[in-house]
Amino acid sequence: MPAQAAAVAAPPYDVLNTEEARARAAGKPNSFLHISKPEIDLPAGTDPYAAAVYAKGAENLARMVKGGVLVRDAEPHYYVYRLEMGDHVQTGFVGTSSVAAYDINRVRKHEFTRPDKEDDRVRQIEALNAQTGPVLLAYKANKDLQAVIDGVAKNAPLYDVTADDGIVHTIWKMDDKAAIDRVTALVDAMPALYIADGHHRSAAASRVAAKRREIESAGYFLSVAFPHDQMRIFDYNRVIKDLNGLSSDAFLAKVKESFDVTPASAQVKPDKPTRFGMFLDGKWYQLDIHAKLIPATDPVARLDVSLLQDNLIAPVLGIADPRRDKRIDFVGGIRGLKELEKRVNSGEMKVAFALHPTTLEQLMAVADADQVMPPKSTWFEPKLADGLVSHVLD
Asked: What is d(CA 284, CA 316) in angstroms, rounded to the nearest whole number?
């Protein structure tokens, strides 16, 4: 119900740990965290992947539906969804995406998924008989589609919620049949949509659909799609525990074999691709990779995250598998460069690297080439809220 929206809206299930979720939902019986992180309603120490956790989520969903907190539409609709974060605004639409299109790569991927995380989402969907966490999609900006979306957004919103982190989530119902048909036609004409965030949710939806072929609604997954030129990717920075047995001077000498190294008097936030900031021994340096090391065409190898990994982190620091190596950690750029300084100055880490953000155009080029991005390549902000929209399977 619109009146309950602010009480229900919650951060995505995967941005809070159990204790953070328990604290955030305290005194808020209708917070969607009781559905997306139901272990918060079970004894401390409960395995979040235990069968009782998924059952508790289903119980909480049923309670909120029975109490009229969550209400199902009598007819299918699209919704318009606007996110505002400070001066940044992006406006897209809510719908369900075809699993069949996902399976043939019209809904394009750019990440590997982990089987354990896929299994978790499958069990959650099956227990709830619903998809409650939307997949974030991007599409190449389309002025005709934007005109329909902007027209709906001129009306009074269904929800207008300011979350705890200050992000404003505004949702309008698209109930004009001509507008609905127009959106459907325009999206169907697109060669592809691109997963920005939600690879495990979409993969899980595909697995559930394969088991529930007789249920039409299971052949679709909940998604929120935005035009690529409105979406915002932050840098995803790296911190490393040690210099792989090298002294600082020896390390710098090796770095200079592949990069121009310039000492800086202030923090270095890279202002263009192929430029990096490095914080070592209390000092900032600007690194510019040698032009001859930049591949001409490979969309993955040309990414800044790949250039740093392939020319410094792997050969100099000895970290060949950043997915699994415990010597490396990743810091979302929304936390700022001070967080990199803090991690190094504390002694926890030895060196930090600041990167230029990956662009949506780069992400789409990788997906179009049917390739996979390196781990921790993109950090999207602002993030969608859980609980404002869900998709029931029946």
From this structure: 19
